[in-house]
């Protein structure tokens, strides 16, 4: 079973639904989905919302190993993703030599403000935590108490590991930053990190047509055999 934890934003629940559909429709192995919805994390996730926080799951993503009882492996992804390839190929890259595996971006955004009018922040390892393969037993530092109290940089810069050698790398194709990375035919996962077509102001972003097509596929329902029985006479 491929365990997937998806970020969930109350402001755009359609994003996580489309992301899940893009995974499920291409997967060759069974996948389980857990949405990191704050209403389901009461008593576990207690930290107040930070003024720079642009999503509900900015910090709750680091609860994944704890939610798995620090056993086995799990994959976390942001909600603004669109998988273009079989997630089983990404899952097959798990390496027990590492505590966590990520795409090691060198991402320095130029804009000052990002979507939802939030200040754009720049820091080392930015976007590394948007797709994470967790070797949960090796992430025991991520207790709920730690996740609720650590600074954003301590979490997103993986200070809790103590050693960057414990961070493994996965191919760039599994976290392609739309409108930052050069277009490529070898993309396993599109990441609309600067705003996706689920927001009206970003309908013209790169790969918008792919996301909109996925949404339509998700909404499809075959009507051909769903016929009401004919009424009997009399």
Description:
- The protein is of the alpha/beta class and 234 residues long.
- It has one domain (2-219): Spore Coat Polysaccharide Biosynthesis Protein SpsA, Chain A.
- Helices cover 19% and strands 15% of the residues.
- It contains 6 helices and 9 strands.
- The protein has helices at residues 13-24, 64-67, 87-91, 144-149, 152-156, 208-219; strands at residues 2-7, 31-36, 73-77, 81-83, 100-102, 131-135, 167-169, 176-177, 189-191.
- A 6-stranded mixed β-sheet has the order 2-1-3-6-5-7. It has a 3-stranded mixed β-sheet with strand order 4-9-8.
Overall spatial form: globular
Major beta-sheet overview? 6 strands, mixed
Give the count of helical stretches: 6
The structure class reads alpha/beta
Q: Look at the structure and give the CATH class.
A: Alpha Beta
The count of strands amounts to 9
- Helix and strand string, N-terminal first? EHEHEEHEEHHEEEH
| Number of individual domains | 1
Beta-strand residue percentage? 15-25%
| CATH fold call | Spore Coat Polysaccharide Biosynthesis Protein SpsA, Chain A
Q: In order across it, which strands form the biggest sheet?
A: 2-1-3-6-5-7
Q: List low-confidence stretches.
A: none
N-to-C CA distance: 54 Å
C-alpha Rg, in Å? 19 Å
Helical fraction: 10-25%
Architecture per CATH nomenclature, i.e. the level-2 architecture = Alpha-Beta Complex
Mean pLDDT: 91
CATH-wise, what's the superfamily?
Spore Coat Polysaccharide Biosynthesis Protein SpsA, Chain A
